[in-house]
Amino acid sequence: MTPDDLHTSASRTLDPAAAAQAIRDGRTALGIELGSTRIKACLVLADDPSTVLAVGSHAWENRFVDRLWTYAIDDVWAGLQAAYADLVADVRDRHDVALETVGALGVSAMMHGYLAFDAHGELLTEFRTWRNTNTDRSAAVLSELFGVNIPLRWSIAHLYQAVLDEEPHVTDVDFFTTLAGYVHWKLTGRKVLGIGDASGMFPIDAETRDYDTRMLEKFDRLISERAYGLEVAALLPEVVVAGGSAGELTAEGAALLDPSGALKPGAPLCPPEGDAGTGMVATNSVAPRTGNVSAGTSIFAMVVLERPLAQVHHELDVVTTPAGDPVAMVHCNNGASELAAWVGLFDRFATVSGGDLHADDVFEALFREALDGEPDAGGLLAYNHLAGEPIADLQEGRPLFVRTPESRLTLANFMRAQIYGVFGTLALGMRVLDGEGVALDRMFAHGGMFRTAGVAQRFLAGALDAPVAVAETASEGGAWGIAVLAAYLAEASDLPLDAYLRDRVFADAEFDVVEPDPEDVPGFAAYLSRYRAGLAVERAAVPAL
User: Fold this and answer.
1) With bands split at pLDDT 50, 70 and 90, how would you rate the model's confidence at 448?
2) pLDDT in the model for residue 532
3) Nearby residues of 346 by Cβ (< 8 Å), 6 or more positions away
4) CA 475 to chain centre
5) Where are the domains positioned within the chain?
6) How much of the chain is helix, strand and coil, in % rounded to 5?
7) Do 322 and 195 meet the contact criterion of CB atoms below 8 Å apart?
8) Residue 325 confidence (pLDDT)
9) How far apart are the first and last CA of the chain?
10) According to the lineage, what is the superkingdom (predicted)?
11) How far apart are CA 246 and CA 239, in angstroms?
12) Who's near 78: CB < 8 A, 6+ residues apart?
């Protein structure tokens, strides 16, 4: 099992004949999301997006090339085609229909990062993902210049770092965008971006719901001597809010997605969004005082704000919902990947010892065992830092499991420490948000590690000292979230996004809500105190190993 699996087992069902006819008529919405480890596709009924008709997926992995995290562009298209073909096969198997058209389409992908193109549309460098931490000088300068936190992963930080490093490609940049913006451009010919994803490229003005013009001017002055004539506003994609027109699938785009030629062009596309935006949609967390935690290869919390933050914090960056409302984001580069690696180790042990447990059974057994661990994990510490982690002041990652001689090493404590470790850096950022007095009515969680009911959800509630809800619907996938945004195109003139989600999509949704366990709250606080102190070990490990 991967950390960001798409779950659809609880989605609503439709009469088979009606479902087949809806697919033939194109009364559907298709969402595709390029996640960190899987590219997923989800087809839903347009007038009831809680009804999932078919799914498809394809596994892929990032690469560490020349000390930068990247994905090959050829892998982007091979993966998209494979995920779409898998969806087409699922449509055929479930409904005995050949998929030839969709009513609407949306593309989502990992937020932030850097894809730069010249005037001929040629890629100038390898795709630089959100995971890279080489932009520390750039982010520091821009944060001071703008008076807002500019994280290392933001696209503008990547561009300015390239300027500082005097990379030769800078003079040829004609357009730069995110992965979702790139794929959307190739499918439609439109250089646009949903406002949520755009807010991770360059700061957004909350009033105009567009890039902040004062900051654009400041940036141009900053680079005027190093990159003469470069005007950043001309290089950025157009900002579009949820429900806005973002183009149609062209014949060339249809052929890119479906080389078989069966898919017809013409479907409208919603604005492309980042995985943070689709996570908010998938958990009905776009209204003020709502928030969500998404746990996959990375882990991040999104909290929709009622008012601006009082101070600038390097642990928090301000982005937006897909409708343009301000959001405080706690983004951690490292999520459940290290946990999944340990589960894989135990899975292999089960196999070589003659067991016949399925990988999912091993996962669940280990998670259940964690419930018997001590509230503070018995003094054990687990660091999940495969990559650098800005919140923890780590330029590079070194996964570590650490204990003292008096700690209590049991399987239950070990597994609880590993799950706590996924939430460790996130909790450091959330403590800063608590200090700002930000109020939350509810926090939702989604991602593969929440599949085992009552375990990771309970521990997260203890870590945040707040109730945590998990939806009992298909809403645990970003591909489903962008499919919902695609379906919203037909409703946007009548309903704001939060009302559409509340009244049309989640009206009958069921949620499992877990309150903080009175022992887990002080237990996790003790763990986090040791975790914070032990970061010195992590920092020492980077130059030593």
Assistant:
1) confident
2) 97
3) 362, 366
4) 14
5) 285-474+515-545
6) 40, 20, 40
7) yes
8) 95
9) 30
10) Bacteria
11) 10
12) none
Name the one residue in this structure whose structure tokens are 């950025």: 236
Q: Tell me which H or E stretch contains 204.
A: strand 204-205
Domain spanning 285-474+515-545: CATH 3.30.420.40: yes
- What are the tens digits of pLDDT across the range 100-130? 999 999 999 999 999 999 999 999 999 999 9
Distance, in Å, from the CA atom of 67 to the CA atom of 325, rounded to the nearest integer, reads 36
Q: Which two tokens stand for residue 395?
A: 């330029």
Q: What is the mean pLDDT of the chain?
A: 93
Q: At what angle do helices 411-435 and 456-464 cross, to 10 degrees?
A: 40
| Mean predicted confidence (pLDDT) in 315-340 | 95
Task: Confirm if 286 and 280 have CB atoms less than 8 A apart.
Answer: yes
Q: What is the pLDDT of residues 224-271, one digit of tens each?
A: 988 878 899 999 999 999 999 999 999 999 999 999 999 999 999 999
Which residue do the tokens 């403590």 mark? 431
Output the CA torsion sign for 417, 422, 424, 430.
negative
Percent of residues, the chain, with pLDDT higher than 70: 97
- Nearest by Cα to 151 from 164, 140, 165, 160: 140
- Count the alpha carbons within 13 Å of 339 in the hemisphere toward its beta carbon: 34
Which residues 6+ apart lie within 8 Å of 55 measured at CB?
Answer: 6, 8, 40, 41, 42, 43, 86, 87, 90, 477, 479
- Where on the phi/psi map is residue 379: left (φ > 0), alpha (ψ -120 to 50), or beta? left
Q: What is the DSSP letter of 199?
A: T
Q: Is 323 in a helix, a strand, or coil?
A: coil
Alpha carbons 203 and 154: distance in angstroms, whole number: 10
Q: Which two tokens stand for residue 296?
A: 């996959």
Tokens of 243: 């429900």
CA distance 123 to 116: 6
CA pair distance 11, 506, nearest whole angstrom: 12
Rounded to 10 degrees, what is the CA torsion of 66, 62, 317, 438? -150
> Does pLDDT of 465 surpass 80?
yes
Kindly state the percentage of the chain with pLDDT values over 90: 85
For 194, the token pair is 């949903």
Instruction: Report, as an integer, the average pLDDT of 446-471.
Output: 91
The Cα-based distances of 237 to 180, 197, 246, 322, 525 in angstroms read 11, 10, 11, 15, 43
pLDDT greater than 90 at residue 166: yes
501 DSSP assignment = I
- Residue 179's Cβ-count burial label (10 Å; 0-12, 13-18, 19+) is buried
pLDDT of residue 446: 85
C-alpha separations of 509 from 152, 242, 283, 479 in Å: 37, 22, 10, 18
Q: Parallel, antiparallel, or unpaired: how do β-strands 238-240 and 192-194 relate?
A: parallel
* CA–CA distance, 306 with 437 (Å, rounded to integer): 11
Tell me the H-state helices in 283-375.
337-352, 359-370
d(CA 371, CA 367): 7
Contacts for 74 with CB less than 8 Å, ≥ 6 apart: none
